[in-house]
Hints:
This protein is an alpha/beta fold. The chain has 10 helices and 9 strands. The protein has helices at 2-11, 30-42, 58-67, 89-96, 109-120, 135-148, 163-173, 191-201, 206-212, 215-222; strands at residues 13-15, 21-23, 48-52, 74-78, 102-105, 124-129, 149-157, 178-186, 226-234. Strand 1 (13-15) and strand 2 form a beta hairpin. Helix 2 packs parallel to helix 3 (58-67), helix 5 (109-120) runs parallel beside helix 6 and helix 6 (135-148) packs parallel to helix 7 (163-173). The longest helix has 14 residues, at 135-148. The structure holds S-adenosylmethionine. Residues 26-28, 52-59, 78-81, 85-86, 108-110, 130-132 line the site of S-adenosylmethionine.
Amino acid sequence: MKQIIEQLYKTKTVVDRNGKTYELKAAIDRREGELLFDIIHQDFGILKTLEVGCAYGLSSLYICSALQGRSGAFHTIIDPFQNTTWHGIGIKHLEEAEIDFFHHIEAKSEFALPQLLAENERKFDFIFIDGLHTFDHTLLDCFYANRLLRVGGYLAIDDVSFSSVRRVVDFFKSYPCYEEYRSVSSTGSKPFKKLIARALISPIPQKIWAKILRWNLYHKIFEDKIIRTIVLKKIAEDNRRWDWHNDAF
Ligand SMILES: C[S@@+](CC[C@H](N)C(=O)[O-])C[C@H]1O[C@@H](n2cnc3c(N)ncnc32)[C@H](O)[C@@H]1O
């Protein structure tokens, strides 16, 4: 399976069942893939995994290669457009890697996740969210993921640099039942650009800028790293009361 992954990154192309070639796009990169792989590989308690958003199958390949050979392992994939937009290539890659312990649900996550929850509350060990990246959709995916995940399990979320996704992640990070476990980040704006920007705006306190600057711009200026993929660990049952809230939101 490692060979397939290497080949995909090297050629930056994918081939469908009819031999037609397409550019590799939308996929997680090596560091992000290795993060998913490492966490699953190192925790032998991870057997039941779930992924929202398969595309050309890079994340599926990393997750399944970490699970391979583990008795009882099973991977569930939700992707409504696998056989249309993505030409069935993600599933083809898993088949080529001789993975037979997965199931693809060809439906939008807003329909598939509530159905899964009906029979799988707190049964998943690892969930990766990389579907539709709007705020409301990510929130919905994470809401169901939280209910599907057992204590001790991991919730991984991609594209945290999108402000829509970041807002959801910031909210979930404030739940008492989650702790930040690991992440992949990049350095963001060049340090000298940040220094100049910070010097120019220094007469006004940072908390005022937080209110008036566009969210993205604020983070570009004040943050030293941009998180791209984050993994939260569920460390307790989610026992928030009906009146739990976070004043920051
Ligand atoms: C960024 S791509 C996923 C990339 C993939 N994880 C990888 O590493 O190669 C986003 C995926 O979300 C899927 N998607 C779009 N809308 C969705 C929805 N409503 N429910 C679930 N998946 C959705 C798309 O079909 C696409 O495969």
